[in-house]
Amino acid sequence: MNFIAQVEEKLRDLGSEARKKHPGVKEASERAILTLRSLQSQYVSAVRASSSTSSKPHPTTSLFRSQDVLRPFLLACNYPDASAKLLTIGLNAIQLLIDGDSICPPDSVHIVRVLAIQANCCCQDVTKQGSGGSDGSNSSPAKGGVMSVMTGGMSTASSTSGRNQKERDAISLKVLETLEKVIRSPSLELTEEVLSQAFSVGFVIIA
Prior knowledge:
There is one protein chain. The chain has 7 helices and no strands. By secondary structure, the chain is an all-alpha fold. The termini are far apart.
């Protein structure tokens, strides 16, 4: 399956999983599919142009850098109570986009912010369960997260996710995998904030 088809499949899976509980994610996924198809047309034109003359290099998947395509995956990972399945789709998709060099360099900060949200969720779940707390859920996105449309502020999870231990372990591993890809990416910006949040995410999960 080629890169474009993989991204579109993940957008469809995300929209389907988010349909009932997080309709905003579904709507963002639908908009992202339209953007992806537009970028695909540009990619095809670029391929044809490169084939007709040796002076133009063959386009790469970096042509698919778009906040519209990334946004639904970030939005899904912005919810403290997102299901393990929804998070797995979102984080896998972010990894796919990083591998394809299809994320705008400054957007690294938004990725580590949602990773921080989920790292804190996993930590709070363990803490509250250990102290006999309840597994309350919160269908609102975390403050300072992507619902502010990539503006700023620290990401903080405010409630438990309701996931079981196996799901928490899987999400924690997926968060670390995604974090490693961000750090190793040759194109994503590693600003002071990105590195600070990355350190915090690793510390919260490993500790």
